[in-house]
């Protein structure tokens, strides 16, 4: 025979396996005035406690280490399964949308610096000269007039 423990919020209900006689409850060595088969602990603080119930010569003991919280919500198996299934369906839907939208963009040529035009091979244009080393052209001598060579 075993104890039956029910937890709801911060309320812990313990049912003694004894069915006959007047039941004496003890929690961590202190006797309780409750003589019923069920013992209710209101506002349990999640601290471990030794619980025993006895009637006559029969005695049952239990170490209770129950974690309780005031703001917890209990979820049944169906709710957890529904949440996981909905999450997976939404994730797969987003993946399919991204796949179909990215599939249509494969044929569009990008205008990035590293892209080359497809088709026939074309000659590359000459490289752009560096403006710092650009040669002096006719008609632009007044720009460079102050750069005359000096005789040493």
UniProtKB/TrEMBL annotation:
Q: Could you give a GO molecular-function term held by this entry?
A: transmembrane signaling receptor activity
Gene3D superfamilies, per database record: Immunoglobulins
One GO CC term of this entry? alpha-beta T cell receptor complex
Q: Any idea where this protein resides? A: Cell membrane
Organism, per UniProt?
Chordeiles acutipennis
Where primarily located? membrane
**Which residue stretches belong to region Disordered?**
108-139
Bilayer-crossing residues are: 78-101
Q: GO biological process: any one?
A: positive thymic T cell selection
- List keywords of the entry alphabetically: Cell membrane, Immunity, Immunoglobulin domain, Membrane, Receptor, Signal, Transmembrane, Transmembrane helix
Q: Report whether Protein biosynthesis shows up as a keyword of the record.
A: no
Membrane disposition: Single-pass type I membrane protein
Q: What is this protein called?
A: T-cell surface glycoprotein CD3 epsilon chain
Taxonomic classification:
Eukaryota, Metazoa, Chordata, Craniata, Vertebrata
Q: Which InterPro entries match?
A: CD3_esu/gsu/dsu, Ig-like_fold, Phos_immunorcpt_sig_ITAM
> In which domain of life is the source organism classified?
Eukaryota
Matches recorded under Pfam families: Ig_5 (PF16681)
């Amino acid at each position: 025979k075993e104890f039956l423990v029910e937890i709801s919020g911060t309320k812990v209900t313990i049912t003694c396996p004894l069915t006959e006689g007047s039941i004496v409850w003890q929690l961590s060595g202190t006797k309780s005035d409750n003589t019923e088969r069920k013992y209710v602990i209101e506002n349990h603080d999640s601290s471990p406690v030794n619980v025993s119930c006895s009637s006559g010569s029969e005695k049952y003991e239990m170490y209770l280490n129950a974690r309780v919280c005031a703001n917890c919500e209990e979820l049944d198996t169906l709710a957890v399964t529904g949440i996981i299934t909905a999450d997976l369906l939404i994730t797969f839907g987003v993946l399919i949308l991204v796949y179909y939208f990215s599939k249509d963009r494969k044929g569009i040529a990008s205008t990035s610096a590293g892209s080359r035009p497809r088709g026939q091979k074309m000659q590359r244009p000459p490289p752009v000269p560096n403006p710092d080393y650009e040669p002096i052209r006719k008609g632009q001598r007044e720009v460079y007039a102050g750069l005359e060579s000096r005789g040493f």
